[in-house]
Description:
There is one protein chain. The protein starts with a helix and ends in an 8-residue tail after the last helix. It is an all-alpha fold. α2 (about 10-25) packs parallel to α5. The protein has helices at about 1-5, 10-25, 30-40, 40-45, 55-60, 65-75, 80-85, 95-100, 105-110, 120-125, 130-140, 140-150, 155-160, 170-175, 180-190, 195-205, 210-220, 225-240, 255-270, 280-290, 295, 300-305. The chain has 22 helices and no strands.
Amino acid sequence: MADVVDPAGDTVRRAAACAAFIEAAQEGNLSPLQQLMSINDAAELMAATDEEGSTGFMHAAWCGHVEAMRLLLGHPSANAPAMMMQAESGGSTALVLAAQYGHVDAMRLLLDHPSADASAMMMHEDGTGWTALMWVAQEGHVDAMRLLLDHPLTEPAAMMTHSAGDGTTALIAASRNGHVDAVRLLLDHPSAATSAMTAFSDALPPSCAPLLFLLRRVAMQPQPCDAQEAHMSRVMVTLMAGPRSGALFDDNQPDDVRDECIRLLLEFGARGFDFNRPCVMRIVRELAALARVPQLLNKAVVGAALAQQQRLPRH
């Protein structure tokens, strides 16, 4: 160890000191970090990166070592704002790295730091266009999602509607991986009315998205004609009774988990529809007769349709 921390300054020993510093940060070992910074150029150590462009501070965040992060941010040689916004070769900042593993305390330390630009950190995109919210949604880290969405400097609507290059949003990421609680959190958030509503249909498997589109179109028309109602009914029966398109959802997810995500999305999409309209309720009643529909539609909506069955037109 002596040759590693020897401050002689030759290139080999300095490189070894940097490597030891990164390793200590990754493991959260405070004593070696303090010792290395006390007898070496601390600024050089904190600026050093590994082969992937990650600093010791990034490794500490990635592994959730809060005390190590606090030690480095509080050092006199630290440029805290730059450290928190610096990205590794894949475009991930400390917040994104912490988010990938749901390290809530590490994320909170970053967002609440006096030098933090919390809004910029939360909206930062990595090399794939993903934000911290998208990562925690994909992994189902609900507590981390709440931290981001409820932070006083957050822009929840902007975060929820942000999409990567392939169109993925936080809602799609959570739905695709069957994280029911994460889906529910996004749909029930106060900003959902203006943000998630614009993205929820994209989170449905292709077999369900047309259902909500058609239902909305009929519900909004003053007097939908019989042909439109008949067409909508046929399309919904075909879509809901037939096999789902699993391209959006992980085929390894259990059916009940996948169905619950779809049910939540459908229920959210149904908010604001005028289900007292006979034409809409008749179609919902027809869907209720299908085996799979009770798993996917809001039971209250289906129940309301069935309760008025006698008053609806027969065909």
